[in-house]
Write a structure and sequence with these properties.
alpha/beta; Rossmann fold; 5-stranded parallel beta sheet; 3-stranded parallel beta sheet
Length: about 230
């Protein structure tokens, strides 16, 4: 815990980069009142929690609008501690809510370069990281060495077909969802290897992205269930 006898000293202390999680400030001070200090702190450190501790019954609106909590002087230490705990809890929850979600990585596999680039661009525009592979060997190398959340693969690949690649991927990581794109509605027995089989001529780009999101979310739910 650190202390400062004035608003000026408090600002100077913080300007040196001192790590502070919360500020308790009085209203009635010398050269700089509590509302002036609170406004300045909010400008300089917008996410720093502030609590006004004062015996003044009617604090100015300019102060109450910028602080995160208020405690009257003379109240029990437990009241102060409870307020500090509540404000810190709200601040932590807000920070976690604002933190960007972890980016999911999609491995796009297609031996046609233009189709591959267009598909990768589609997923990148939707907020995913997209990795590209133009051959079965490249796809398996990436799949076995990188963290992959889902695979979107064309059925026809030079020298092989997507089902054989999918079988090997499932052997390595059975829970990673695989979406197969093909001109066929499905092939007997082959559709069971993958998690979704979509006709390229019929699936809309948005529907493809939504299907991948659904499968990633489904697998995440399964993992959470197995952990609990």
């Amino acid at each position: 815990m650190f202390t400062a006898v004035s608003g000026t000293k408090a600002l100077a202390f913080l300007s040196r980069g001192s790590a502070v999680d919360l500020v308790l400030l009085d209203f009635s001070m010398g050269a700089m009142n509590g509302d002036e200090l609170a406004i300045k702190l909010r400008e300089l450190y917008p996410k720093l929690p502030l609590i006004a501790v004062s015996g003044v019954e009617q604090l100015p609106a300019s102060l109450l609008q910028v602080v995160d909590g208020r405690v009257r002087k003379g109240q029990t230490p437990e009241t102060l501690l409870a307020t500090v705990s509540e404000v810190l809890g709200r601040s932590k929850g807000k920070a976690e809510a604002e933190r960007p979600a972890a980016t999911s990585t999609i491995l796009c596999v297609d031996d046609e370069e233009l189709q591959l680039k267009m598909r990768a661009a589609l997923f990148e525009s939707a907020g995913f990281e997209a990795l590209q592979a133009r051959s079965a060997n490249t796809a398996l190398e990436i799949f076995s060495t990188r963290r992959i959340d889902a695979v979107v693969m064309d059925y026809w690949l030079s020298g092989t077909n997507g089902t054989k690649v999918a079988e090997e991927m499932k052997r390595l990581h059975p829970r990673i969802p695989i979406v197969m794109l093909s001109g066929y509605s499905s092939l007997p027995g082959e559709g069971s290897v993958v998690d979704a089989w979509l006709r390229k001529a019929e699936v809309e780009p948005e529907a493809l992205v939504n299907e991948v999101r659904r499968l990633i979310g489904f697998q995440s739910d399964l993992q959470q269930t197995s952990i609990s």
